[in-house]
From TrEMBL:
The keyword Calcium applies. Gene3D superfamilies: 3.30.1120.10, Alkaline Phosphatase, subunit A (3.40.720.10). Belongs to the sulfatase family. It comes from Chitinophaga chungangae. This is Sulfatase. Keywords: Calcium, Hydrolase, Metal-binding, Signal. Residues 29-350 form the Sulfatase N-terminal domain. CDD domains: GALNS_like. SUPFAM superfamilies: Alkaline phosphatase-like (SSF53649). It holds the Pfam family Sulfatase. Residues 1-19 form the signal peptide. InterPro entries: Alkaline_phosphatase_core_sf, Sulfatase, Sulfatase_CS, Sulfatase_N.
Amino acid sequence: MIKKIMAFSLLAIAAAAICSFIPPKAPKPNVVIIFMDDMGYGDPVCFGGGPYKTPNLDRMAANGMRFTSFYAAQAVCSASRAGLLTGCYPNRIGIAGALSPTSKIALNNEEETIAEILKAQGYVTGMAGKWHLGAKRPFLPQQNGFDSYLGLPYSNDMWPVHYDGVPYADTAKNNRKNYPPLPLIDGSDTKRIIRTLEDQAELTGLYTERACSFIRENKNKPFFLYLAHSMPHVPIAVAKKFRGTSGAGLFGDLMQELDASIGQVLKTLEENGLSKNTLVIFTSDNGPWLNFGNHAGNTAGLREGKGTSYEGGQRVPCIMQWPGHIPAGTVTSKVASTIDVLPTVAAICGANLPKKKIDGISILSLLKGEKDANPRDHFVYYYGHNQLEAIRKGNYKLVFPHKARTYKQNLPGYDGFPGAQPNIEAPMALFDLRLDPGETLDVQAKFPEVVKDLQALADTYRKTLGDALTDTKGTENREPGSVN
């Protein structure tokens, strides 16, 4: 009996010793998405911007991966944000354009967002900044998976104020004069009214403060933070601390303030020992609004800008940082998009994909630097009310005939005022983006087989998602939410 007791005790001690050597379960990685508004491909210094400085973005690029062929889901505000948060081409889920304060549609609550799939895995979810997927309950962030929210429900120019910062007179010939005052929402309720450009100058700081507080408050839990800045979308406004600091005008000052905001977020992660376990994604919702001249960014030579399916409208800067996982100082020219963020984050965090079909694919193999990784074979450029305007596969991009906005026929405006942005008839053209990223040389006569291949691929999207340009109704489009 004594021998049995001793044997049992030895087994217990051995089992305890073995258990003591089992490494603790690794904490789930945190995710931070920093989403800019109207920041052009060429605006960060590490993408060719300046003469202002963006040291924090430059450091992110040095510590992570810089993407040179990264695309917004669509070249306009609401559609782009819908694509980022749901992993869908926005026309699949019925979101087009930039929703106004009185829009009768919104992101359908039945669509699952990044916040919702992570929340199901025990993540704390927070958002600060511009939402633009529904202006009131039940379509605000807290009804779409976010535990907390501070920000504007739509773009910062959707207010009854003229470009010079003066409220519109009743006789003004502008539909914005009838917009409601611009609300800053905390949770799901209006916290204060943004009335002036000086009020707007506080927004970047307010968003940053909320983002950093969220990190500190949830440092011991897995979290998802979505920081969606309202700028450099016009009207641009800069905190007093940063005015006149860049030597490159108000836009340069703003770029330095936005970069400093990113620096504060990164510093907060570092101070709380979270840097190595946090994936940070920086990108923009679309290209620059070029007709605003010195209050707009640049495309680094890409064609056209915001509101177009040319490269300057939809190719955006992107940097991803995750120490120990994403090789530092790497650059990829492989095609990827904001619609790929959700499935990539799901793969990293062990979350389930949405129950309904999405269009994004995981680019985790690309982030890890795996040899020959090329997860996204092609990308389609939809715009407007379900118009399939272009398709890219490899280095080739086929543009279909459509009406397109142009910034090339008129001088831009200056100091906050816009120039004209008329529409033109865009002809069918094939571009080799490796040799001609500015889309200047039509090579379709040289490569008829490439045209044929891309046409056939586009037809598969016309069948499923539709195409207003060819009067084709899709079989897989879903309805947006309906606002009463």
